[in-house]
Amino acid sequence: MANLGESETRALIQLIKPIADDEWIVGHRGSEWLALTPDLEEDLAFSSISQDELGHAQFYYELLHSLGLPSADELVYLRPASGWTNAQVLETPNQDWAHTVALRYLYEILDDIRHEALLGSWYQPLTDGVRKIRMEEKYHLQHFATGFELLATGTELSRQRLIEGIADIWPRLGDLFAWGGSEEFLEKLGLPNLAQAQLRHSWTTRMEKTFHDLELPWPGPMPGVNVNGRNGEHSQNLSKLLDVMTEVRQIDVNSPW
Amino acid sequence: MEETERTRIFMERINAGEKIEANDWMPAEYRNLLIKQIHMHGISEIMGAYPEKEWVPKAPSIRRKLALNAKVQDEIGHGQMLLRLAEDLSRPYGRGREELMDDVLDGRVKFHNVFHMEAPTWADAGVIGFLVDGGAIITQAMLLDSSYAPYARMLKRIVAEESFHMQHGEAVVLALAEGSQAQRDMLQGAINRWWEPMMFFFGPVQMGKGAQRMMEYKIRTKTNEELRQKFINRYVPRITSLGMTIPDSELRQDPDTKEWHYSQPDWERYNAMVRLNSGPMSQARIAMRRQAHEEQRWVREAMNKASERQVSEHQPAI
Amino acid sequence: MQDTVSSEYPVFEVFVQKEPLGFHTNVGSLRAANPELALQMARETFFRRENAYDIWVVPQDCIFGTAHDEAHLPVSGLDKGYRLPGGYDNASHWKKFRAKAMTIEEVAEDMRS
């Protein structure tokens, strides 16, 4: 990347890292559902989606590596919790199925908005990958949108559990839309649509339509950013997740596995 | 036509190497043997997901995590395909997916001894792919010639996917064998744990009545001992080439007959494990299946309820 | 209101299985008044020269298909080499241990003997 200036490189890292970490944590939590979803066919679908998410994260980590950061495996296996920039809500341990479907639907909408905006980047290695990623993400969004709709319109119980799931997630959504530090880097990258205010606006517009169509109660005002995972602020949930995730690798960090 | 005459014609078809389809007339015994075999096979695939599933969150590199994820997914996929066959065969008995899965929770269907065992280290995840899948591949390759066509067809797909499982399991084992002393020790430990269960896996030399009848119906084509010999013959040289030992001092090959002599596994212990679900991990894994199946029935009910409306609004595709 | 009877037959899609261990494949469609007739017509429409092991007919409006875009069809976005046998290079590692790599085709062949 000879023609990237230092500040452009920094800006790209600031942009890509939180997206990579979101995708990884979502893929990791998703794969914990393996063999535990409500039916065998869903297991197959959800596992593919989790693999896709982990694969997207891998693509972004490799991009970060090309920008001077450690290798993809090192970024995943050798970083302390404070170095992770995923949104906090994504590290929440899995709860019931309705909770997962709700969280994933809310996340996939943001991911869709985010990836669409990324296509506007002048950095071709990024847009080349994003184009491929969007092929898979469209299906993810469709899958969780269908699940969300069917639970909302299924039985009293499923609707109730979905509403409870949303209620649990909603107040903790704040940093999902945020970036680490100042947003000046978005100017440098020519991606103003990715500014927090923009993301919140686009996301809320789409979400309001869904809630209206499905006659779901609007969960309340959008939360602000109380703690910002983008700055490495995390709950115990992330350190526990990382302890499990790196357990084997820690036996010998340098040996091939 | 009389029952005996129909059976005679059916056996003529079997002996001529013809394939039987789901809707063909078949003796009740043939149907029941198939249901028992395919139900157990499918459930074993599903229960076999659990020992490896535990290691997906802990897989030590990105590539291993992706591969193990995909591998466990395939096992569930095989379970899905096989259960569909068992469901079709069980239709005359009014039993479907819900009942066949309930059978696991109530202990009415058995699953392979190996999936009742602990998998305490990452090397176990590798050795399961290496030896258990290796054994399963041998068994399943035999079934490619099964007289029941839907089973043979599915096995063709399954065996094709097992090809990736074999490469994955070997890759994990090879990396450990090439690694540090700690990694090699971990590998040896896992081989020590899995060898004896694998000797049991193929079943007793003296096959039971059901297994013998399955040979006569050409549902299966090889004896337990033939399969075990093929397994030993393939895997002993591979394991020793890695500088690993096999935990059986009796193991040796007769230079003339090429037959392998091996120590008898603890038949009583493993039989009890399978029959009573009393292995070290039997209950924990059944509990996970219960969590997925029984405790999420509400999800399937909701999906059905909501879909009743949707389907009636759907436009045909063509 | 008077009942009107349509003179147009419904459409059936035809699926053929060529050999016992093959899968059913769609070969075309035809019109017939009912499934039984559709099966008879399928013989004449598609198998005047070919053998078939089994034939299915399915009312066309019972078929639900995917839309032809990325969200609906399985397309591989990023590399999925990790789940393909060809994504592994175990042979060179086995060689280090003076052992030969093994393929599933070889195992399957061995079981036929």
Describe the structure.
The complex is a heterotrimer of chains A (257), B (318) and C (113). Chain A has nine helices and no strands. Helices cover 62% and strands 0% of the residues of chain A. The radius of gyration of chain A is 18 Å and the shape is globular. The model of chain A has no long low-confidence stretch (mean pLDDT 96). A two-stranded antiparallel ribbon of chain B has the order 1-2. Chain C folds into two domains: 11-62, Roll (Ubiquitin-like (UB roll)); 84-112, no CATH class. In chain C, strands 2-1-3 form a three-stranded antiparallel β-sheet, with helices on one face. In chain C, strand 1 and strand 2 form a beta hairpin. The model of chain C has no long low-confidence stretch (mean pLDDT 86). Chains A and B meet through helix 2, helix 3, helix 5 and helix 6 of A and helix 3, helix 4, helix 7, helix 8 and helix 12 of B.
Major sheet summary line of chain A: none
End-to-end distance of chain A, in Å? 30 Å
Count up the domains of chain C.
2
Q: Largest sheet of chain C, order of strands side by side?
A: 2-1-3
Can you tell me the CATH topology of chain A? Ferritin
Would you identify the regions of chain C where 5 or more consecutive residues have pLDDT less than 50?
none
Multimerization status: heterotrimer
Give unreliable regions of chain A as ranges: none
Count of DSSP E strands of chain C? 3
Straight-line N-to-C gap of chain C: 72 Å
Amount of beta strand of chain C: 15-25%
CATH architecture of the largest domain in chain C: Roll
CATH architecture of chain A: Up-down Bundle
Main pleated-sheet profile of chain C: 3 strands, antiparallel
Total number of distinct structural domains of chain A: 1
Give the mean pLDDT of chain C: 86
CA-based shape of chain A: globular
Contiguous helical run count of chain C: 3
